[in-house]
Amino acid sequence: MSDVNVEQFQGFSENHYQHGMHTLAWISLWTIIVLGVGAGVFGFIWGVTH
Question: Keyword set for this entry (predicted)?
């Protein structure tokens, strides 16, 4: 029984880690997109006004 409990705990731990990394990846992706769009809009406005 103890082996089964250890396997279940490892599976839960792995899934939790993967969920955390997935969330971090989405946050990073959206941060890059927002910064990229913001920089593009700023650059466009800067270019038009100068």
Answer: Membrane, Transmembrane, Transmembrane helix
